[in-house]
Here is the input.
Amino acid sequence: MKNILLLVHDDAGQEARLQAALDLTRALDGHMHCIDVVAMPAIVGDYYSGAADAMLLADERDRESANKEALTARLAHEDVRWTWSDTTGAIAESIVAAATMADIIVLNRQLDTFPYPDMHDIASQVVMRTRKPVLAVPDTLDRLKLDRALIAWDGRASSVAAMRACVPLLALASEVEIFTAGDGGGDAEPAEAAEYLSRHAIHATIRSTDDGFHSVDRLIAEEAARWRADYVIMGAYSHGRLMESFGGVTKRMLSNSKLPLVLGH
Here is the structure.
């Protein structure tokens, strides 16, 4: 896990994404690639002339040009290896196109105080379409801590994929917990996950609860708070996107989590 892809865009979540990507790149001794997206206008302009769209796009380009100048000046003084590319288009599609050689993609889980762009939907689209781990951070994050990793385990293919992809990240943790709620319902038991990790010199504890009264996302959040987790690794959209769109675990975690999420599919 050496190739970190960072979305650069002048929005309320950019500083949190940047700090997370810098911390991650340093911890993994990796390389950060910044993709600066000039987002296409979200509002349809004048039907005949397209003048409104053209003005919005020009404003967006001006903002991103200034944003690039400021960030590249900052990055010149950071102790990480980085590269930069510029593109214009829809944010999710631009990230997907740039993600071919990425090991992990840094986004926001959503923007709590900003209506656009819709980072909740962008994170969902990217994790589904790239099949790469997505680090989705709260827009208030000022430092990415990696000491205590909570794996939300249901034994399904998405959980397995997320854990396997994140072995280099888990190797940095001082403590790892595998947490499962109920019977899991998947093909792999938490003990099998712990055994797999042990062969990578990662020694995880297991904790299970069989609470039938509360939603799984609430149980994960409560366990993360009790155990003082720094971040949560989980499989995304384990039951299919259609079911998740009506209020599944992944959707609610993206909406409500106070911690960074590493989502795999």
Confidence is low (pLDDT under 50) at residues 240-247. The longest strand covers residues 31-39. The first helix runs from residue 14 to 28.
